[in-house]
Design brief:
The chain is 75% helix and 0% strand. The longest helix has 67 residues. It is mostly helical. It comes from Triticum turgidum subsp. durum (Durum wheat).
Length: 481
């Protein structure tokens, strides 16, 4: 039976209000009440701030659950050992990355630490004054009931080794708090929808004014909207169930994956191989150092021989000077000899300059050769790492011969006959796998098209049933009238 039949037709009926409502009271709804909305928003924000404060103050020691949780991606409990400090610094750098702030491992500069504190305080809506940022930071930590104690001397000299651990603890704690507040800002608390209240208010307003047709139209509109929302919720629930099944499959797959012990053993084997390679490099460099020492001994011997030759030359020059002094010469011969000596001295100076230039070029060429050889060794190591990742069917490693004089002698020629066929075979196998995966994707697309066609048929069937349902409801309403 329709609601308008019992209202006396004119909206009065037997249920008269105690006092006629004013036009402002009738037109005022919960959605249009600005004062009520502002009060509710203030209450919501104050409740969220109090929740964050209660979490920071009532559970100061619940930053983490265990040391193992830090390795699994969870919060860290203690920052006493180096591993926990490295993990905490990594978490802080990850949060500060969008702000282009990076704290260098071991001991970051003081300006970066101060910039990190300013950024975290800004994220907490508590900007620090540049002139007295230490006092503002200590006041902020006291208001948030920070579990870590921080002294003013540590803030005055943030770049010293003894003040870095407590500063890192406070930075990590503020990072966790900022992540928590960012999560609250990103996902505001769900509030009850006001659609029902709006519907009731408008329906009551139309009832008071006696507009029964408008009431029936409003009822139909709200019922249609409710059915649509129910359908959307059902679809969302189905999607969530599907996502739950996918997550269960992923969890079972992860449970069946190799254990952490095996992964650590693989890492240990890799580290052992790296240590062996490092020992081989040290051994090779020790051999090179011995060769350089032997070459240095030979150079010292050559230097001694040159010094002795120079002393002998000086003695001969002294004897020649004495002979010249004892000889009787005229002024013309003296001038000629002076000119010849000046020319000889100029030639000697030119030869010395040319010798110095040649020595400098020799040192530059030697340094360039050493740098190029190091670059070749680095590239060979990168190629070996790439080969280990590709896992070809052969065991091939590039080996650099530092004593070679040509590319063939430095790198060898075995890679042309050994490595290229293996890489070609690996490329062919990869192409074959890509083609097979492409065929599988085509089959899956065909299955998906069949499923979509089936869903369309079901939707059309549901639409037919819905039309029949609407016809039955109309018949029921006509019968009730």
């Amino acid at each position: 039976m329709r609601r308008g039949r019992g209202r006396g037709g004119g909206g009065g009926g037997g249920r008269h209000p105690k006092a006629p409502p004013s036009s402002a009271a009738v037109d005022r709804t919960p959605m249009s009440d600005a004062f009520s909305i502002q009060r509710n928003l203030d209450h919501a924000f104050s409740r969220r701030d109090s929740d964050a404060y209660s979490i920071c103050s009532s559970r100061p020691s619940s930053i983490g659950t265990a040391q193992a949780a830090s390795h699994a991606g969870g919060p860290i409990t203690s920052l006493s050992d180096r591993g926990s400090q490295v993990a905490a610094l990594r978490a802080v750098n990850t949060y500060l990355a969008p702000a282009a702030i990076h704290l260098r491992p071991s001991l970051p500069p003081a300006k970066d630490i101060v910039a990190a504190f300013h950024h975290l305080a800004d994220r907490l809506r508590y900007p620090l004054k540049p002139a007295a940022w230490e006092d503002d930071l200590l006041a902020l930590l006291r208001s948030l009931c920070c579990p870590y104690k921080l002294t003013r001397s540590a803030l005055k000299a943030p770049g010293t080794p003894h003040s870095w651990p407590p500063l890192l603890s406070v930075l990590y704690w503020l990072t966790l708090l900022c992540r928590f507040t960012d999560g609250l800002d990103a996902s505001p608390p769900a509030s009850a929808s006001n659609d029902l209240m709006t519907y009731i208010t408008e329906s009551y307003h139309l009832f008071l004014t006696g507009e029964d047709d408008a009431v029936a139209s409003l009822d139909d509109e709200y019922h249609t909207k409710a059915r649509t929302q129910i359908g959307e919720w059902v679809a969302a629930i189905q999607e969530l169930e599907k996502e739950l099944q996918d997550l269960e499959a992923k969890r079972s797959k992860q449970m069946s994956a190799p254990s952490r012990l095996k992964a650590l053993e693989d890492k240990k084997d890799a580290f052992t191989a790296d240590v062996q390679k490092f020992e081989a490099v040290v051994k090779s460099w020790s051999t090179k150092i011995k060769e350089k020492e032997e070459a240095l001994v030979e150079v010292e011997k050559e230097l001694e021989a040159k010094v002795m030759n120079c002393q002998q030359t000086m003695a001969e020059n002294g004897e020649l000077v004495k002979q010249v002094e004892t000889q009787v010469v005229n002024v013309r011969d003296v001038d000629r000899m002076a000119r010849e000596m000046q020319a000889v001295e100029n030639d000697i100076a030119k030869l010395e300059n040319a010798n110095a230039v040649l020595e400098e070029k020799g040192w530059e060429l030697e340094a360039a050769l050493v740098s190029k050889l190091e670059e070749i060794e680095g590239l060979a190591e990168l190629c070996n790492q790439s080969l280990r990742k590709l896992k070809p069917s052969i065991d091939f490693q590039y080996e650099v011969n530092a004593k070679g004089s040509s590319p063939a002698e430095i790198l060898g020629t075995t890679y042309k006959t050994t490595l290229k066929p293996a890489l070609n075979a690996l490329a062919n196998e990869t192409k074959r796998l890509i083609i097979s995966k492409h065929d599988e994707s085509i089959d899956l697309q065909k299955q998906l098209q069949g499923i979509v066609k089936m869903l369309e048929e079901k939707r059309s069937h549901v639409s037919v049933l819905q039309a029949k349902n609407n016809e039955m409801q109309c018949l029921i309403e006509e019968v009730s009238i």
